[in-house]
Amino acid sequence: MSELTWIEISSNALRNNIARLRSLIGKSTLLCACVKANAYGHGLCEAGRIFIEAGADWLSVHALHEARRLRQAGLTCPIYILGPLGTDDYPEALQLDCRLVVYNESDLPRIARAAHACGRPARLHVKIETGANRQGIGPGLLEPLCTAISENPHLMLEGCSTHFANIEDTTDHSFAEAQLKRLRAALELLEARGIKAPIVHCANSAATIIFPESHFQMVRTGIAAYGMWPSNETYVSFVKERKGGFVLKPALMWKSRVAQVKDVPKGEHIGYGCTFKTGHATRLAVIPIGYYEGYDRSTAGGHVLIRGRQAPIRGRICMNLIMAEVTDIGDVRTDDEVVLLGRDGDECISAEQIARWSNTINYEVTTRINDRIPRIITD
Ligand SMILES: Cc1ncc(COP(=O)(O)O)c(C=O)c1O
What we know:
Layout: E1 5-9, H1 11-25, E2 30-34, H2 36-40, H3 44-53, E3 58-61, H4 64-72, E4 79-81, H5 90-95, E5 98-102, H6 108-118, E6 122-127, H7 139-151, E7 155-161, H8 174-192, E8 199-203, H9 205-210, E9 218-221, H10 232-242, E10 252-257, E11 260-264, E12 269-270, E13 276-277, E14 282-287, E15 303-306, E16 309-314, E17 322-325, E18 337-344, E19 347-349, H11 351-357, H12 362-367, E20 375-377
Parallel strand pairs: 1-20, 2-3, 2-9, 3-4, 4-5, 5-6, 6-7, 7-8, 8-9
Antiparallel strand pairs: 1-10, 10-18, 11-14, 12-13, 14-17, 15-16, 15-18, 16-17, 18-19
Helix pairs in contact: 1-3
């Protein structure tokens, strides 16, 4: 392979994760796999297709351009756009047969006009504010919005949803429980007015795994479908309650090749800012990956794997290059494979490990990997 960096995706791992999630939610709950952010870095169309073939029912994306790419790739499954649309985007979104999130009554006339032109009602999912204070409509405005949808022949209230604010970051789920209570109260208020959406959904991965009462008619799982736990706290909560038995398989490996091997004497500086000084004669491997490719510049104390051994990164992460010490590895050569994320022999670098080095979360590690790097399905 001539590529200098590439991503390997295990379709078996992705399939396995969908099967695991299915075993948690049962057959009658819809499984909506979240493929926004280039499928959390795994390749939008590649991962989307595998998820649907493996039994996911819906795909969710953030933006119209992602829905467009999925349709262009031939995917005919239900697509739910989670994010806001530009005012001119409604006709195309409806032509592409997407489900839309709504929380502003003022958006309805434009959506209704686009639906009329499209020749079928727009399927809308009202986002209810329950405590995240992100997208969503509060209690006072919810009923008028849902009534306006129900009374408009070009609009259909297909779903009601909310999103948890504090479920991954803690093993205390009282805030999530309070949100669930608010969601239930909102649904009851609507039902009392004769309004009932067929699909209620609020569970992200953490809620899907640890909070069965949040499953309703559909779950929206992202990170777990890619084989990563949402957080240590989610893992601990799960093990505490269920005592294990749920295995997720990470699907992504990030690889590159050694571009140059060089010997640097003791007392030399390495890279920008002269932040690292060699304490002994040092052999370095120069690797064509940097923050442009998505390897965070703030990564400190990290390593890559070469010949199944840990090679510590020396000096700053550059825009397109890093330098790793291979003094103790021996016989490293130009073109040798480098594993930035994934397994090589007995060694493994997880997204969680990289997240610790760069003070972030696994979500950010994989979603930041540059979209232009080829994604290759390996099994
Ligand atoms: C609205 C919404 N639903 C579901 C998800 C999936 O979350 P997770 O990856 O934690 O499963 C996200 C992800 O950010 C989201 O924004």
